[in-house]
Write a structure and sequence with these properties.
Layout lengths: L1 E11 L6 H12 L11 E10 L2 H16 L5 E7 L1
Antiparallel strand pairs: 1-2, 1-3
């Protein structure tokens, strides 16, 4: 078995209102950081995997993201394996 480290990024889909992002965007504006905008908040997850090969590791991460780690109705995910 090979060992892998997965780095997973989960974000709200572009057409979903990001309330946390809007709150931070408003705070930045109040602090005179009006040159910053379109703030989006997401999740960053790392985990270790043991798998036979790269393909199996990718399938395991994809399956975990679809079933547990992300809400596929409103969130997108991407990941890298090391």
């Amino acid at each position: 078995m090979k060992k892998y480290k997965a780095e997973i990024k989960i974000t709200l889909r572009e057409n979903i209102l990001d309330v946390q992002g809007k709150t931070i965007e408003h705070a930045l504006f109040q602090l005179d950081y009006d040159m910053m905008g379109n703030v989006r908040i997401g999740k960053y997850i790392t985990l270790d995997i043991e798998a036979q090969n790269d393909g199996q590791a990718e399938e395991l991460v994809k399956d975990a993201c679809q079933k547990l780690l992300s809400n596929t109705v409103i969130e997108d995910f991407s990941f890298t394996l090391e």
